[in-house]
TrEMBL record:
Binding site for a divalent metal cation: H184, H229, H284
Protein name: 4-hydroxythreonine-4-phosphate dehydrogenase
Subcellular location: Cytoplasm
Organism: Halomonas caseinilytica
Example of a GO biological process term: pyridoxal phosphate biosynthetic process
The keyword Isomerase belongs to this UniProt entry's keyword annotation: no
TM region(s), chain numbering: none
Keyword presence, NADP: yes
HAMAP family in UniProt: PdxA
Miscellaneous comment in the UniProt entry for this protein: The active site is located at the dimer interface.
Length: 347
């Protein structure tokens, strides 16, 4: 591939008071050369944060939508978006919620216009966006679903050994792919959200994207139950009998290979995981603690079901570390390399 053909990836720099801006500049010290990664954010903020953490990187402000130059270590091209209010590391400022949303909007527009082949997102702070008046905001995943006008997308996190695999040879103690049937919902609402139609949409997307984006020829998916011990035959909850089992049976008839519903506590053991390509957890904190225990800092978040590639970090804004220079860039580096790999193989 010649330099002029290198794909463009838009990297949104996330909550300005968090660690996203400094991770972007730290990542640019060893800027990958197999794609043109362009940050979306405030160039002055990125320069300030580079100085604060002692990172010798040149921030190169481009015109909006301008094609980034050939990548070079130590140079971070930026599509500029202006902060709405001054920003101090670790201190949330509601006026900057509009800035964060504008960075997302710019990246989406670039993907829609074909100016970028995909996007990588640094962490944003959901609470401050909601408090700034965007009451329906839930997270990047839901934002991107709505921005793309698709019915459903799937949040999947994977630990590093499971990100690059093109077959099921990735199994190992820390290799995991965990997708979620519901995302950013209060726990009280989860039971009602686990419906047959939702599980059907999610499992179809997960099966198709494991084939298409990860090269798994015949995905085997382990499906968690919702209740303790997967409902214990209906004695500890009926969602397995009434919703999950009939849905899985119908999908098996379509050709999907699904095991479950299995009790989540024993599903996440080597015996079961050794024969799985992914796990579907019913809710956020059923699946993600296990994934983050296995691979925090080296895992990535992937949105399946979008018309372009989107990857993200496995951590949040870490306001406690912002501006200190001690935040680990591992997950952002992983998310960027994964996005490049997915774009290169046309996934
Ligand atoms: N991709 C995303 O946009 C994303 C992901 C997760 C959480 N969040 C948001 O982030 C905010 C804060 O969430 P939280 O406090 O639960 O989680 P968090 O990940 O920000 O912090 C949890 C702990 O991990 C540490 N940590 C996080 N990232 C680190 C890194 N790169 N290097 C070293 N240590 C790191 C933090 O210092 C903290 O002690 C919330 O608003 C949440 O919704 C966003
Ligand atoms: N659920 C994610 C996690 O815990 O890592 C995180 O909140 C990011 O979600 P979005 O990519 O939808 O913002």
């Amino acid at each position: 591939m010649s330099d002029t053909d290198l794909p463009v990836l838009a990297l949104t720099t996330g909550e300005p008071a968090g660690i996203g801006p400094e991770l972007a500049v730290v990542m640019a010290r060893d800027m990958p050369t197999s794609a043109r990664v362009v940050a979306v954010g405030d160039p002055a903020l990125l320069e300030d944060r580079a100085r604060a953490v002692g990172c010798d990187v040149t921030v190169l402000a481009l015109a909006p939508g301008e094609t980034p130059p050939v990548p070079r270590a130590g140079v971070l091209p930026v599509w500029p978006v202006a902060l709405r209010a001054p920003c101090r590391p670790g201190e949330l400022e509601a006026r900057n919620a509009a800035y964060v949303l504008e960075t997302l909007g710019r990246a989406v527009a670039a993907c829609q216009a074909g100016e970028a082949a995909g996007m990588v997102t640094a962490p944003l702070h959901k609470g401050v966006i909601i408090e700034a008046g965007h009451a329906d905001f839930r997270g990047h995943t839901e934002y991107l679903r709505d921005a793309c006008g698709v019915d459903e997308v799937v949040m999947m996190l994977a630990t590093d050994p499971a990100l690059h695999a093109m077959s099921s040879t990735w199994h190992g103690e820390t290799a995991l792919r965990v997708a979620l049937a519901t995302t950013h919902l209060p726990l009280r609402e989860v039971g009602d959200a686990v419906t047959g139609p939702r599980l059907t949409r999610i499992l179809r997307i997960l099966d198709a994207e494991l084939r298409h984006r990860f090269g798994v020829l015949s995905p085997r998916i382990l499906v968690c139950g919702l209740n303790p011990h997967a409902g214990e035959g209906g004695h500890l909850g009926r969602e397995e009998l009434d919703v999950i089992i009939p849905t899985l049976e119908a999908l098996r008839a379509e050709g999907l290979t699904l095991d479950g519903p299995l009790p989540a506590d024993t599903l996440f053991t080597p015996h079961h995981l050794a024969r799985a390509d992914a796990v579907l957890a019913m809710y956020h904190d059923q699946g993600l603690p296990v994934l983050k225990y296995a691979g925090f800092g080296r895992a990535a978040n992937i949105t399946l079901g979008l018309p372009w590639v989107r990857t993200s970090v496995d951590h949040g804004t870490a306001l406690d570390l912002a501006g200190c220079g001690s935040a680990d860039p591992g997950s952002l580096i992983t998310a960027v390399s994964l996005a490049i790999e997915m774009v290169q193989r046309g996934a």
